[in-house]
Amino acid sequence: MNAEQIRELSAQADLRPLTGEEVLAMVKSEGEDAFDALMDGAESLRRKYKGNDVSLCAIVNAKSGKCGENCGFCAQSVHFDTGVSEYDFIGKDAVLDAAKRARQMGAREFSMVLAGRKIRKKEIRIAQEIFPEIQRETGMSPCCSPGAVNAEDVAELKAAGLNMFHHNLETARSHYAEVCGTRDYDDNRRAVEEANKAGLFTCCGGIFGMGETWEQRVELLLDLRELDVDSVPINFLNPIPGTPMENFETLPEEECLRIIALARHLMPTKQILIAGGRQVHLKDRQKDIFRAGASGMMIGDYLTTKGADPWQDHRMLEELGMSIAPCDKHGGHADVTEPVASPIPVQPLPTGYTPVRFVRSPE
Ligand code: SF4
Asked: What domains sit in the chain, N to C, each tagged with a CATH number?
């Protein structure tokens, strides 16, 4: 497909759902002109539906390690010797502290992530106190990654005050057995369906760079489109020593940008959020994620690996003229005109840094 054909097809993405064959042809087209056309199309869709607002989320690893599942990318599985920190649920006060730090970093959504197949009943009972307090004390929208839960768990989480539900499908159905052997793709998909049915905002994506083909990337993204999730986190594999994927090569930067653009073309109106592996894969091209169609990113540390200095991310957003998106649509009420608090205890501000006042871009 040449650049002109890509531009024409990209314009169609706004009028009708593109097919898998169409986006595959677009994304596989080689040459600088074709790449630029793909990026231009993705950026134009992002600008139309998300403006210059960037959704910022942060997470806390609220229970780490000792997981009986064997997801091949994960440091927290008991099946692999990764030396990861192992601890049980950190409890209410520690989660709230982490939420406050996330708020200081400028996050507007905050997710409590628990290792393991799914959240336990006693953890849901503690969450009943945590979720409302996150919202009350920080104004952020409480999110949780509770694992492959069932309808009853989802109802209890919602009753506990949860607004956003996060659970990844990880990879395409046709590639899933290569990634995890202890549960199947539909366990993950069912959990997201239940959250959708319960009326929770759903955040569901996958990890790229786990040996999947372009066809499988499209397969996963088409399934996410069918699930009609609200937000799609795109992670890139950060190979962890000790896991079966420790020797996987990182993806070239341009390939990562093509994946983001692919997601934007398939789901023009959704939140496309870049999460784990951003620094490792994109390196000095992190600014380009917005040109490729991203409308959000995770800031701070990831589950078991260090993230970027949040103030560097803020500087990047400032240089790009981006604003932090509010989270009021999800039940949070964080004031987007409030300056980002500084300094946060673990990440002192660089010398000479002036706190940035982020404002909502014009509707
Ligand atoms: S990704 Fe989740 S379910 Fe899979 S091994 Fe890691 S903690 Fe367990």
From this structure: 3-328 (3.20.20.70)
